[in-house]
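Subgroup meeting minutes
Present: P.N., E.W., G.H.
Scribe: E.W.

1. P.N. recapped why we're keeping a running log of single-chain structure predictions: easier to compare across weeks, and new members can see raw inputs and outputs side by side.
2. G.H. added today's entry (210 aa).
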Amino acid sequence: YPSGNLAIIITRERDQHSLIVQEDELKTVKIRALFQSDGRSTCYYRNGDEWINMSIHGGQYLDQAGNRVRRWMWLNLSPEPHVPLSPIFISLNRHVGVRILAQDKIFISFLAMGRQAKFNMGTKVQVSAASQPPPAAQLGEDELLLLAFRVRILQLFDRMRGCLNFPSTEQWNKMQPPMYLMTQAVKILELCMAADISDELRSSIKAIVN
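Output recorded in log:
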């Protein structure tokens, strides 16, 4: 960002890659979106609530109250009747926008100081009716809380190491947590959205990892 804060991170692990969009904040690292090459992607409102969620099957668009505004299926999944995607454009902030046109046309654009970078995180993932992936195992409330506190403790330990290595307060505010902790935090938030837990607990876990 023009402020010097990190905006977009791209990681690669084996044959998979991910793109993470962070909010333009100095003291906290708030994830606004995660796009993965296996077809899974999630965008979040500024307060951390889920905005758009996509999988290899399709996606859904939620309002800030958590109500489903739109749901769609990708065209290549089956010949059966389905709800197609109408193009979606959202602005995560004044510098980062997301355009969703098709399964293989999901564009993230970054615009600042008259220059633009554009990334296509869309992918063609074919899914046949005979090879539907099994549903993800849901974790209980205690397990989710333990995972969240584990990530939070690791974040604090990492920050303590950074404070010892860089005594200047100005340096502290610029430190970013390790990529593996950011990825774990995003995965816990995804598990929370899939789990049958109360909204209060879901909000508490989001506050812990963020």
